[in-house]
Amino acid sequence: MTTDLSPWPHRPVEVGLVGAGPWARAMHARVLAAGPETRLAAVWARRTDAAREAAAPYAAHVAADFDELLDHCEAVAFAVPPAVQAELAPLAAKAGKAVLLEKPLGPDLDSARRVADAVSEAGVVSQFVLTKRYHPATRSFLEAARAAQVTGARSCYLHGAFLGGEMATGWRLEHGALLDLGPHLIDLLNTAVGPIAAIRATGDPRRWIELTCEHANGAVSQATLSGSVNVPRAITRVELFGAGQPLMYDTAEINHEDCWPVLRREFADAVRTGTSAELDARYGLNLQALLDGVVLG
């Protein structure tokens, strides 16, 4: 899918941001405020001082509570731990707000299902933030993969964020790479190789975990995940093998800044048309169901 980034013909979507941590400041607030498709209308976080810090550069309203945030926006973006998103996203949906959701939807499959069900029952637009999926290079790779007959694949997503720093947050350290990095690789393998039927795993999600994915078409893929290794920069790589020439996807050479305008435009377009795109809450639930079904041993 190629997004048309021609001049935006509609009024900006007024977005309220839940969360004011490092990811909220680095991505959500900055990208949503940049427009022209969206405007950062309000920020709410459980720490008011953090909300003020995130809102100040963009003159966004600092909401005193979640209900006040809902009063100031037509869509809600979440940049909070999965348990908090699972608690508040259904309330936003029931209030008729479009939702921009982070992965994973919730800390477990039941909470993720409650989010997806609430979105479905309310009939609101939803979009799932799988960052790399919005990059043109990723879309070109997946388009090429659709024309290939893949026998097997290997992939990895490795970084050292869990070793310390702002991104070594409680939920990441508790659940490890499977819930944090897993959605990205499982999404790419499920899309590029074919629907995944079962996943077996060895290792420890908090240190290093290896996944073997059995696909419905008979292909087999491998995925290596770790957020606890000292590498100079994150490594995300997918290699596809079959009767034709191998296909390779590597994020080493891509600029992630190219993802944000596409993500913002597609979310705003979905809100204005009232129609969610492929990467919606139900898609996020399907990914979480695959991860929940991982058999260790």
From TrEMBL:
Q: Name one Pfam family in it.
A: GFO_IDH_MocA
Does the record's keyword annotation contain Oxidoreductase? yes
InterPro entries, A to Z:
Gfo/Idh/MocA-like_OxRdtase_N, Gfo/Idh/MocA_oxidrdct_glycsds, GFO_IDH_MocA-like_dom, NAD(P)-bd_dom_sf
Could you list the residue ranges forming a coiled coil in this record? Answer: none
Identify the Gene3D superfamilies for this entry: Dihydrodipicolinate Reductase, domain 2 (3.30.360.10), NAD(P)-binding Rossmann-like Domain (3.40.50.720)
- Ranges of residues in domain GFO/IDH/MocA-like oxidoreductase: 159-242
What sequence ranges are listed for the domain Gfo/Idh/MocA-like oxidoreductase N-terminal? 14-125
Q: Which UniProt keywords apply?
A: Oxidoreductase, Plasmid
Q: Does the keyword Cell cycle apply?
A: no
Gene Ontology molecular-function annotations: nucleotide binding; oxidoreductase activity
PANTHER family found in the cross-reference section: BCDNA.GH03377 (PTHR43818:SF11)
List the protein's name: Oxidoreductase
Q: Give the source species.
A: Streptomyces parvulus
Specify the taxonomic lineage: Bacteria, Bacillati, Actinomycetota, Actinomycetes, Kitasatosporales
